[in-house]
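Narrative of activities, Objective 1.

The group set out to show that a structural description can be obtained from nothing but a protein's sequence at a throughput compatible with the screening campaign. Below is one input-output pair from the validation batch, recorded exactly as produced.
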Amino acid sequence: MNIIKTEIKDLYIIEPKVYGDHRGWFMETWSRRSFEEAGLYYTFVQDNHSFSAKKNTIRGLHFQKGEFAQAKLVRCTLGKVLDVAVDIRKGSPTYLQWAAVELSAENKRQMLIPRGFAHGFATLTDSVEFLYKADNWYAPASEGSILWSDPEIGVKWDVKDPIIAEKDANAPLFRDCDIDFVYGVKQ
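Output recorded for this entry:
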């Protein structure tokens, strides 16, 4: 497993080793041992799986706050997405910076997103399946979101005529969010 640091503090791209032959391929998508050898300590408790039917669908920017904050290991198993993570930890050296990486069924890359980040993705193909490992339980009352097109953050989605859920279209701007993440403080 190749663990790649991004330009954003504590955000990683994961490239699993893929073993293939004439029958197909095999890969290990999560290894506690490999992560701990890299100094990354996570205990995942829940897997989530989403499907987006159409290209140009944007989901996000989402997070859970307080005691229900979540770290996520995300990957795309069908189709292709532009996956985005925004550092929303006050005091972080990369506060309000974002990174985007293409995740696809073909490249098999993953993104490890720690607690204190908002997350979203845009589908680059029709028929996208997206999987999340989370280190904390889903808690609807702790959900937060930031408007996907917030100019203060400035994510470059490169999507024309985006398909947006009403909840995401009505999300607040970052400056109007109640965000409690602080860099260096365990959530």
